[in-house]
Amino acid sequence: MRIIRDYQFIKPQDRGASVAIGNFDGVHVGHQSVIELARSTAPDASLGVLTFEPHPREYFAPDAPPFRLMRDNARAHRLEKLGVEKLYELPFNAALAGLTPEEFARSVICDGLGLSHVVVGSDFCFGKGRSGTADDLVRFGQQMGFGVTIAPLMERSENVVSSTAIRTALTEGRPHDAATMLGHWHRIEGEVIGGEQRGRELGFPTANMSIEGMHPPKFGVYAVLVDVLDGPHQGSYHGAASVGTRPMFNGEVPNIETFLFDFSGDLYGSTLSVGLVEYLRTEMTFDGLDGLIAQMDADCEKARTVLAAL
């Protein structure tokens, strides 16, 4: 998959694509249906996605609580798995935010990227002040020579699939419900960073990853599926992970610490993708380390049972 980050200097081979437009946070089943429409509506064109980085919500409200389900690299990995050939990941800045809907259609979609067809959700808004609608885009497409398809909102179990609904499920410790809307396990992806080695001292060495800037799932212990994406230990593993602030050790900054079952090796610097499968328990404190170790043994045993049943 090619990643293009500038709409003003485009190689000829990167023009003419059929693209789905949106932020695609989580790449949930609604997003996937929009991408599939872009594929099926113009099967002879390259399949693309047009999105923005940072997320416009981050740009306009930088001090708001973290809300993203995915970082940009995790989103790119998921889109590539769906067969997307070209990812137009445009920098969202003052210049782009200031374009009127018509200017966006002409300068970005038509003249800049030279797209042949675009697909958007029925609730799509674009341009300065989010003043442009999906119907406006249809009208611009007719004037400027690119096709437009409006995809209906997708529903699952009588609820509209949305990133907001997925965040709510994760906040409430319902990863199965989140996965139903996502079409895949919710995954936290990132580089393994140095920790305080407490897990190793307790007999449970963990891979520590930051969740800074991400919407935090309910704090506690989860059964997880782990993909090591690079390095000498690349592969898939089962495990248990703790998400939170480690109250037993007076932690302050939330992170995720993952223990891989039946694994021995150094993961520092490797990139992990940790899929949350089942919420096992809330964060707890103990009178001593013996109680903590006994609970960790029980957590791992329960996680093994859960994952064996998949």
From TrEMBL:
Record NCBIfam families: PRK05627.1-3, ribF
UniProt keyword terms in alphabetical order: ATP-binding, FAD, Flavoprotein, FMN, Kinase, Multifunctional enzyme, Nucleotide-binding, Nucleotidyltransferase, Transferase
Ranges of residues in domain Riboflavin kinase: 181-308
Reactions the enzyme catalyzes: riboflavin + ATP = FMN + ADP + H(+); FMN + ATP + H(+) = FAD + diphosphate
Pfam families referenced in this protein's UniProt entry, alphabetically: FAD_syn (PF06574), Flavokinase (PF01687)
Pathway assigned to this chain's UniProt record: Cofactor biosynthesis; FAD biosynthesis; FAD from FMN: step 1/1; Cofactor biosynthesis; FMN biosynthesis; FMN from riboflavin (ATP route): step 1/1
Protein name per UniProt: Riboflavin biosynthesis protein
GO terms for biological process, alphabetical: FAD biosynthetic process; FMN biosynthetic process; riboflavin biosynthetic process
Organism superkingdom: Bacteria
EC nos: 2.7.1.26, 2.7.7.2
Family stated for the protein in its record: Belongs to the ribF family.
PANTHER family associated with the record: RIBOFLAVIN KINASE, RIBOFLAVIN KINASE/FMN ADENYLYLTRANSFERASE
Molecular-function GO term, any one: FMN adenylyltransferase activity
Presence of keyword Acyltransferase: no
InterPro entries: FAD_synthase, Riboflavin_kinase, Riboflavin_kinase_bac, Riboflavin_kinase_bac/euk, Riboflavin_kinase_dom_sf, Rossmann-like_a/b/a_fold
Database matches in SUPFAM superfamilies: Nucleotidylyl transferase (SSF52374), Riboflavin kinase-like (SSF82114)
Gene: ribF
Function noted in UniProt: Catalyzes the phosphorylation of riboflavin to FMN followed by the adenylation of FMN to FAD.
